[in-house]
Amino acid sequence: MVMPLKTIAVLTAGGDAPGMNAAIRAVVRSALSCGLNVTGVRRGYRGLYEKDFFSMNSRHVSGIINLGGTILKSVRFPEFQKREFRQQAAENVRQASIDALVVIGGDGTARGALAFHQDSQIPVAVVPASIDNDLGGTELTIGFDTAVNTAVEAVDRIRDTATSHDRTFIIEVMGRHCGNLALEVGLACGAEIIIIPEQPLNYEKLFQEITTADQQGKESVLIILAEGAAKAPEMAQIISRQFPRKEIRYAILGYIQRGGRPTYATRVLATKLGVAAIQTLMKGNTCHLIGWQNGQTVAVPLQAALASRVKLQTGNLDLTRLLSI
Ligand code: F6P
Q1: Residue 93 CB: number of other CB atoms within 10 A?
Q2: Is there an atom of ligand 1 within 6 Å of 254 CB?
Q3: What does the pLDDT read at residue 312?
């Protein structure tokens, strides 16, 4: 028998991503439209553990659809990997008469939600939000499109200097474990070389690619490096030693990729996934990831989503090679 929901809670956890606010707004307003009470949890799983709860109404989410960051705030809370912390959090949730949680975040957050549900049986719906696009069960995460656009704009600016000064530029983008951001940015910026953490870094091959670019008459080279594959300053030194006559420079884009106004695509995705999260819980589903597949929202069992492979756009490497002649 499906227990009717009366109160849901919403939180954001892990690294922030543009569009989290649009997702919060969609969750809160669609829940209120269904006659549910909404509890906001501040600072993710830490707030759940410390019972940092407040009652939310429609006005709490006014004027936030266009804002980066998260009005609910976020922290990384590794303690949540320990059962005793999750048990205290579950106790707090029960005491506050919360019937289900909507959890907005990335891979680590989704794993926390699964463990929390498995311990407590409290229903959860995960809304994927991360600039890394590193979750199974969805083709896109909230924030990815915005981060790609931010990085593309930055790389375009750097290209001006690279071209004017005949320089080789290494541009480090985020992506500790996943190269999707680097793959999209590299292709969109017409980079010569993209380096991702999923493939072993081979300096001999890299030197060869730079030499080939030289032989093709290229006076400047753009290398897009995902942070998890190597560190830009070290790579710049190694390339400089191999090519002492070349001017090698690097730029680390860092946190500018995580902030800022969400693009239209990010806002629409966040809105649709947020509404679908409430619909999924209302149907009595207890542990799902709300994904985006083939142009529509889908509810994927969370365990299966986390066990499935992240879709990596490795085809972009072939296209980059094909076109950088
Ligand atoms: O949100 C994911 C991510 O951007 C990674 O690409 C990056 O390595 C990490 O977060 C850094 O986050 P923080 O410094 O906030 O822990």
Answers
A1: 23
A2: no
A3: 95
* pLDDT mean over 43-55: 98
Residue type present at position 301: P
Exposure b/e, 16-50, CB count within 10 A at least 16 = b: bbbbbbbbbbbbbbbbbeeebbbbbbbbbbbbbbe
Cβ-Cβ contacts under 8 Å for 260 (sequence gap 6 or more): 18, 68, 146, 150
Strand order in the sheet with 37-41: 53-56, 37-41, 7-12, 100-105, 124-128, 287-293, 296-301
Six token digits for residue 2: 């499906």
Residue 179: CB within 6 Å of ligand 1? Answer: no
Q: Which of 115, 106, 244, 118 is nearest to 180 (CA)?
A: 106
Q: Is 132 a catalytic residue?
A: yes
- β-partners of residue 169 are 222, 249
Beta-strand ranges (E) seen in 156-246 are 167-173, 193-195, 221-226
For residue 35, the SS3 value is coil
How many whole angstroms from 15 Cα to the centroid of ligand 1? 6
Residue nearest to atom 8 of ligand 1 (CA): 176
| Cα four-point dihedral sign 21, 23, 25, 28 | negative
Q: Which domains does the chain have, with CATH numbers?
A: 7-143+262-307 (3.40.50.450), 147-258 (3.40.50.460)
Say what the pTM is. 0.97
52 Cβ contact partners less than 8 Å away, ≥ 6 residues apart: 41, 42, 43, 46
The pair of three-digit structure tokens given for residue 5, joined into one six-digit string: 């929901």
* Token duo for residue 306: 């986390």
Assess whether pLDDT exceeds 60 at residue 178: yes
Mean pLDDT of 249-268: 98
CA 227/CA 33 separation, integer angstroms: 42
Query: Is the distance from CB of 127 to CB of 121 less than 8 angstroms?
Result: no
Residues 103, 13 contacting (CB under 8 angstroms): yes
Task: Band the pLDDT of 215: cuts 50, 70, 90.
Answer: very high
Q: Which of 16, 99, 132, 145 is catalytic?
A: 132
| Per-residue pLDDT at 134 | 96
